[in-house]
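Structure in, sequence out. Go:
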């Protein structure tokens, strides 16, 4: 949570969750935004019984199914803790009030959404242009902490490959 959110600190609730907890299920309406103090969350979708990781979030990140959170639509994905986490949570209503009462918060949210869009576009184009080896190299270069903290099967899922293929790619480096 950034310092600018300090004036709204009364709106936040501290939540500690163990690893492997589903905080939001695909198809549910998102009513909470999570600010990560400690730990790691991932977003993922279920594709015919196989889970596909779409993104990882770490300390300092905020996470919500923003499309669901803002538009009251069913979430397109799950949010799950990968490590024990300490989270600060804010409700949909309190978040909306903060945006309406602070142009700084509105600007910060705009920047957050822009960064998220940029990340999503970069990932999409990487899937379209690059082979798995190149996608892995980009991940290592851009987000080395992911390689250090995330189990291999989640990284493979994120890259759209099997764990066996990821092992081969890692052995080639």
């Amino acid at each position: 949570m950034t310092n600018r959110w300090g004036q709204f600190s009364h709106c936040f609730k501290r939540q500690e969750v163990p690893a492997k907890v589903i905080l939001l299920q695909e198809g549910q309406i998102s009513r909470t935004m999570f600010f990560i103090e400690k730990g790691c969350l991932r977003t993922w979708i279920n594709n015919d019984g196989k889970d596909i990781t779409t993104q990882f979030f770490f300390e300092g990140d905020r996470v919500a199914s923003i499309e669901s959170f803002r538009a009251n639509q069913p979430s397109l994905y799950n949010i799950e803790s990968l490590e024990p986490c300490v989270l600060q949570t804010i409700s949909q209503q309190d978040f909306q009030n903060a945006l309406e009462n602070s142009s700084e918060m509105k600007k910060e949210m705009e920047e957050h959404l822009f960064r998220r869009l940029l990340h999503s576009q970069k990932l999409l184009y990487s899937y379209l242009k690059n082979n798995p080896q190149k996608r892995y190299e980009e991940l290592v270069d851009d987000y080395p902490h992911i390689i250090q903290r995330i189990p291999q099967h989640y990284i493979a899922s994120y890259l759209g490959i099997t764990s066996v293929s990821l092992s081969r790619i890692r052995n080639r480096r």
